[in-house]
Structures are given as C-alpha cells and as structure tokens.
Specification:
The protein is of the alpha/beta class. The protein folds into two domains: about 300 residues, Zn peptidases (Aminopeptidase), CATH 3.40.630; about 140 residues, Roll (Aminopeptidase i, Domain 2), CATH 2.30.250. It has 13 helices and 22 strands. It has a nine-stranded mixed beta sheet, sandwiched between helices. Strand 7 and strand 8 form a beta hairpin. The chain is globular, with a radius of gyration of 24 Å. The two termini are about 40 Å apart. The relative contact order is 0.17. It binds manganese (II) ion (MN) (2 copies). The site of one manganese (II) ion has 6 residues, from helix 8.
C-alpha cells in the first residue's frame, strides 16, 4: 500500500478504479433527452393498443409491415421477415451478411402480462346482479384488482369458426367493469385480521357486469339472461361461444405520464411490453447487419412459458428453419443446432427497481435503480441462484463493452436479497440451445401491478442498448 499519496493522486485513483453508477439525466445531452421523451410517446401509444398478447401480435405485425418485413410463410423474397404463431406470438428477423449457421443476435421478450382471464362458463347472477367468473393469470396481488375500472379484451370463436374481437372499457364513453370490494366497516374478520394471502380469495374476483333484469319476476336467471341477450344482440354470441374464447380482464385506461416533470410512464402491462417495444423499434431500424438480428416476442412467460406459444415451444427453431430455407440452405437438424448454438441472446425482461418504501427486501449495492439506465442481470432465480441460467462472464464482458462503446447508460440488477424471494425469465429456455444469454431490460416500480412505473430515461436506454446489440457483429 502506498500510504503517502497526494490528495490529488488519491482522487484520480478513485475516479479510475471505482465504478460510479450514472443517472441518465446527468449524462444525457439535451438532444438525447428530447429523444427520450419522444420515444416515450410512441411507447405509450403501443401500450394502449396492445393490452393483450393477441393485440401485441397485431401491433407488431402492423409495425413490421410498415418497415418492410414480409410474412415468411408467403414465400416472398427479401431480407426482412416475420412469422406469427397462432396469433399469440411473433418473431421478426433482419437477415445478416454472415450465414445463419454463424449464429443470430437474438432479443427475446414476452407480450403476455398478469391479468384476470374469464372462465369458460363465466356468466352468472347473485343477489340480482350479473357477474363474470375469473381465473387470474400470472403473479398478481389480488387486492390490487378490486374497486377499480376494468376493461374486457378478448377473442371469441363462434360455432361456425368465425371470430369476434371484444374491446370494451377503453373508449371514454364505454362502460367499464369492476370487482366490488368489501366496505372497511365490515371487513375486520374476513379481511383485515387475516394474512394478506388469506384475505383475498381467487374465487371472489368476480366481475360486476350488470343489474338490469330481462323479462319479469317469473323469468329464470333473468339478470344472467340479460347479459346473454346483450352479447347475442350486439355480437351474435351464445353462451356456448364463451367456451371457445380467450377473454381477458385488464385495467381500463391509457398509459399516463407520472410526475410534474413527466419523467415516468405509468401503465398496465409494462412487464414486458416495455422490452417488447424497445426491441421492436430496434429491429425496425436495423439495416442489414453482419449477424442476423432476430426479435422474438413470446407468450405465456407469466405462467412458466409452457404451451405452444410459450418459450418452451419450438417456435424459435421453426422460424430459424424457415430463415435457413429462405436463404437457400437446408434446414437440417445440424444447421439449426449450429445456428442456435452460435447465437447470442438478450433475454429482454424487466427487473424490479429498488423500492423506496421497501428497501429492506433489496440488497442496495446490487439492486437496479430508477433512472440509471437499462439493467443487465447476470442471474435470476431464487435462493442459491436456483432455476437461473447465470450468464457467462465472457458474454457479460462483450455486452458491457458494446454498451460502453455505444453510449448506452446501463446498470446491474438482482431481483431482491438472496433469501428474499426471486423470479425467472425465459433466459433458461434459450440457454437450452447452448447460446449465450444475458437478462437485459428496464427496471420497474410496482411490477405486476395494474399500474407499473418505468423511467422514460431507462426505457430509452433499453431501446438504445438493443439497437446497439442488433447492430453488433
Ligand atoms: Mn417479465
Ligand atoms: Mn412478470
């Protein structure tokens, strides 16, 4: 140890050795700050138009078409393609100069968000009011869904196979729906004195849908009948149609600016449509790169990635096989394996930002902070890194260098204290192929709530990071 260093020397050394997290607002130039706010406007528009996975697919397809991407199943020629899987997930690719077997630059996000799904026999009546039964989807705090305006979004398949899309509760003059909560005066025994996990039951998340009867007092189930009559006269639906349906209850209302300075976005569904939109714009701007850029938008992440539209499905392989064939190569098992094995991925998902009121659940030296840029997360999982894909140090070195060279303000994050809880992303399902994977996305406050909060600065840096990644070798 050198003990007699001058004060100036020590200070110089400190600057050289110690990593200082950067607040985006401190380092962004005025021109970049302008871009931050402009990007957020486009992002909010996407959030309002894409409140479900199906709506997200429609929006992404619309965006892709405008940017010259072609549906790969149609056999058109080109170097920008997309493919849709069952209207619930989608992928975009910009073909690179190197052959596909040399690997992809892949950004994978998810377009499903926690919500309430209608059960297949939803309509019933109780004490002369009409209701809809729900089964919640993903990790919600049930009480957050009570006593607030809710909207219905969904798709119903009729007997003849034709489909009806529903969206009620978003236009200013639309009615909304709601789940009534118990008055505090009577809540002591059944709610207040209980553990929160016991106080709110899934079977009580019943959506109020009407109170006008049809017929007279003699009519059986006349409040339920009134709802069915409305659905029939408005959409031509009968009760059995609701069985072949996916109807989602989501918070009603638009994405909003939060704070006097309008520096934050508050909205439903930012996990993970914030990374989705950042990846989408980045893909849209990618000129033919060295390495093929692929943006993957998955469904079912919030329930473990199972199912034919989730990350455990073979959709990625299928799309890469199409890309191989489009470029005149045989989509052999070997070529597929080589391509995926040589690929580099960002698992584009949000992280929980340090919560000012609950700092005790975070480990402050390693928690993501609002305003400090896009967050890279080496490992997720919980309690001993269980269930994590833990990115390789070599790969972190590459991404760190890439972000530093491209003016991307970034930070690292860990989801909570070691023994506090945790969570996973689709990173581990990509890692199965042997590709490099790193979690990289926007930090959120109020994650999984009906009104999640993100910093416009972090949203923009997420996009900037993804754009740099797609443009990299
Ligand atoms: Mn997520
Ligand atoms: Mn989530």
């Amino acid at each position: 140890m050198k003990k007699n260093m001058s004060k100036k020397k020590v200070e110089e050394l400190r600057k050289r050795l110690v990593r200082k997290p950067q607040l985006v607002w401190d380092v962004a130039k005025p021109a970049e700050k302008k871009k931050v706010f402009e990007f957020a406007e486009r992002y909010k528009g996407f959030l309002d138009a894409a409140k479900t996975e199906r709506e997200a697919v429609r929006e992404i397809e619309g965006f892709a078409k405008k940017k010259g991407f072609k549906d790969i199943t149609k056999g058109d020629r080109g170097n920008k393609f997309y493919k849709i899987n069952k209207n619930k997930n989608i992928a975009l690719a910009v073909l690179g100069k190197r052959p596909l077997v040399a690997g992809l630059n892949l950004i994978a996000s998810h377009i499903d968000s926690p919500r309430l799904d209608l059960k297949q026999n939803p309509v019933y009546e109780e004490v002369d009011l009409a209701f809809l039964k729900t089964h919640y989807y993903g990790g919600i705090k049930k009480y957050q869904w009570l006593a607030r305006p809710l909207a219905i979004h969904g798709t119903v398949l009729k007997k003849d196979g034709s489909s009806v899309n529903l969206e009620i509760g978003e236009a200013d003059d639309d009615p909304v729906f709601t789940i009534a909560d118990l008055l505090p005066h009577l809540a002591r025994k059944v709610q207040t004195d209980k553990k929160v996990s016991d106080a709110f039951a899934g079977e009580k998340l019943n959506v109020l849908a009407g109170s006008l009867p049809l017929g007279d007092e003699e009519t059986k189930e006349r409040f339920k009948l009134a709802v069915l009559e409305y659905l029939f006269s408005t959409y031509g639906l009968i009760e059995e149609d609701l069985i072949s349906a996916e109807i989602e209850i989501v918070p009603a209302g638009r994405a909003r600016d939060v704070g006097w300075d309008r520096s934050l976005v508050g909205a439903y569904g930012q996990d993970d449509r914030v990374c989705t939109y950042a990846a989408l714009e980045a893909a849209g701007e990618t000129k033919p790169p060295q390495t093929t850029a692929l943006a993957l938008f998955m469904d079912k992440e919030e329930v473990g990635s199972d199912g034919s539209t989730g990350a455990k499905s073979r959709f990625l392989e299928d799309f890469v096989a199409d890309l191989l064939e489009t470029t005149g190569q045989e989509a052999s098992a070997k070529a597929l394996r080589s391509c995926l094995m040589a690929s580099k991925a960002l698992s584009a998902d949000v992280n929980g930002a340090l919560d000012p009121d609950y700092q005790e659940v975070h480990e402050k030296r390693n928690a993501a902070r609002i305003g400090y840029g896009v967050c890279i997360t080496k490992f997720t999982g919980s309690g001993g890194k269980y269930g994590s894909s833990d990115a390789n140090a070599e790969y972190l070195a590459q991404i760190r260098k890439l972000f530093n060279e491209n003016g991307v303000v970034w930070q690292t994050g860990e989801l909570g204290k070691v023994d506090e809880g945790g969570g996973g992303t689709i990173a581990k399902f990509l890692a199965i192929y042997g590709m490099e994977v790193l979690d990289c996305g926007t930090p959120l406050l109020s994650m999984h709530s009906p009104f999640e909060i993100a910093s416009k600065a972090d949203i923009y840096m997420t996009y900037k990071g993804y754009r740099a990644f797609f443009g990299s070798k």
